[in-house]
Specification:
alpha+beta, Immunoglobulin-like, Jelly Rolls, 7-stranded mixed beta barrel, elongated
Amino acid sequence: MTKSSAKLVGRLAGLAVLMGAFLAAAVFLSGERGPALRLRPKRGRIVNRAGSYRTMAAARSANAIPITSSVIISAVGTANPAGPVDCRGNAYDYIEIYNQSGRSFNLDGCSLTDKAHRPRKWVFPAITLPPKTSMVLWANGRDTLDSLTSLTPRDGIRSNFWTMGREQMPLIASRVCESSAGFESVDKLSANRKLVFPLTFEQPEDVALWLELRGVGAHTSRVACLVNGQAVILEREPSAEYVLCQIRNPERTDAYWPMEAGPQQLEFGLLAGSVRIARVVVMKRGELLGGGEQDAHLNFKIRRAGEFVGLFTPQRVPLDYVTTPELQPGQSYRRTAAGKGMFAVADADTPLAGVARPPELSLPGGRAAAGQMVVMTPADANDTVRYTLDGSLPTRKSAAYAGPLALTGNTFVRARSFRDGARPSATTDRTYWLEELGPLPVMSVIMEQDDLDGGEFGLLPNKTLRGVLTEKPCHITIIDPACPTAACKAGMRIQGRSTRNFQIKQNFRFKFRNRYESRFWPEPFFDTPGPQKTSSIVAQSSGYLQNAIGFEVMEAAGVQTPRRRHAMMYVNGRPYGLYNLMDDINAPEYLEQTFGHLDLDVVKEKTLTPLKWGTMDEFNRTWGQLEEMPTSSVTVPQVAEFVDLTYLARYAAGLHYLGLGDSGQGWFVLDYKNPARKWTMVAWDLDGSFYMSPERLLFSPAGHRRNAVAALLHSKEYVQAVYAPELQRHLNHVFPVERWVGRIRFYRDRAMPYLDLEWEGMLNQKDDATTKQTLDEFKAKQVAYYTTIEDYLRQRTELLYGKVADMLRVESLHEVTVRPAGGLPALMIDGRPEAGVYKGRYAEGTQLSIAAGGGGAGQELVFEVNGRSVTNTLFEAGVTAPLDIQVTLP
């Protein structure tokens, strides 16, 4: 055979393969009853490349790809809190597909992808899409199936061959199942070697069963699944990730299992190896994915800037594809009603076809009165509104609205619309608070109770799990007598690091996102001047007093702190205790509002991700070079080149007054628009205040892994030149003990009315220590604690004055008392305003200055100093002895 003949044969063979693939696609696209694939060539036209078109619909219109498939992509949308939502009530980015033919279409083996070169990225299970029907799939990267009838292993299960223990992984609180010996057959698995999942069906159902598990150890695991007496063996190799394995019915080609009405049970036995079992997912044949009862979560997300989405056959032949333009939150890219199936961008307020809209409630949330009526109005006359009053998500089994709801006490409403042939709506949530308000605001949280304290996936039982995937949807209402009521949906998760393990009352973070309702809290969250955009709130628990006093002390010392307010938190009406609600300084909105811009580097070392904003380049360069130097050779001028030493001294003084070391909790900030361009600190995590013995001084305000700087802070050069004078000024002007004793009593008086609720909140968070004491014992302990802190600060003040004398190498400090006459304006003492009698202590030779302040600046005063009278606008002298100074008008 000649070369040219060989080439011809090769080309013909290649053409034959392409034709075969095309015919295979045609057969597949035929669905279940005959062909549904049509060719529409036009005479004399050359077929163009489909890749030149944004959508396959456009390519077909131009005859670039002359194929019309039964199933098409009908919409690609970003999360819209108004719907559609998944079976748990959450909104995510989504892809909607539609069967435009008159025949059912078997999707088994088809795939969706966001990568044209990876058509098999997410593969459909054995699912049939009925004619003229759409299906919604969630593009959130979670790669799982979910259903309202999913089952999880129970706590406390133990047998000779199953060891049940919790595994901490994102979204998964699984059970470890280990076999101490292999078993040859299922028959040898006795009752105590089986894991049983009970479930009940109201009517006969065909169901698909999926087991979410992963193999562990070094060997293949074999799990026996017993369904209706039929055994199916699943084998899993060891893996790092969980996998959904379908338990296929060997007697049916569609793999579904027939279930009779009434109670049923699924049994599992471990034949060999070790596995971790998360749950069993039960998918009903009669329920569509994304229809409100069961869902598929894809293993990819939709990029806001534009995304390719393709639908492929099992043979990798494209059924449809679309490339979206940039989409704003809530928008979708969907087929138009007219225009031969072409796509257009739809705004967030344009409802997706087949999705019910949330109902309206006549009464806004917040304060309410007994006897007021709540009217629930559906968006469509054909909708049925169903509601709950316990925080649970309304389902088709929930109470149907039949007339106005009369308020008789605190009420927590979640309402949702249902309509035959449509997906359920998102919820409309309201808190109606009828009880009298105390001195603190109420923070009412509405959520699924199991999302908070449920054994398998609740936040509290799985408090060490981290990340955005652990967020639970909730609705927050802040009811404050001092300002208008505000409410918004958010995501709630555990906040903190070491506190997760030893702290009974957990810290929480509430994140506002577009997919919940809004990216920002709708009103100013804090009582501070200036614009506010609050995208995230941290609720700190144990630091009601410690954080409150701690942040006030640091703020008075001139250190940057987060904004804050207190509230009594309730979840579904149950008290969870006093919380300190603070800025989340991870949020760029906080940084921009605090510093006026985002040209910053922000670093917190004691965290899993130290870089919070900007880059680590300058941080590593400046601090890194110090760490490489011998600590004995570090000098004040070297550090002063890139650290504001006076600011650092103020930061250290505040921490020492509170009885804290830094321990890496402070945030380093470099402001590139500040002409000094030096590192400063933001105070954070001060709930350890007052824990250290008042006699102890831990002198390491910025020494977390910064040994060179810690050594510098101890050096005579820094201490005598910077720190000791700064600490003395703060003890005299910022830390007068009676001022802070007064603040302690202020917070004590605000907390006392809530001690009953605080005690109940500890019980609600499963605090074993609280259950062992009576309410009276708990109250007495709290009252004693406030008195202890007052004593602590008095002792701490004396200790620090003694440390100032030691650092400046003097035997003692001179006491200075300034007594202004009645009617005098506030005095400026050492450049700081002081009202009333002033008392301070000064090291030998320290400069003292006194002048009129406020509106009397520049006014002549009479200073009687230890019996000697001086008239001037300014008294200034070095302190060499105790002074008693009377100040009067001439």
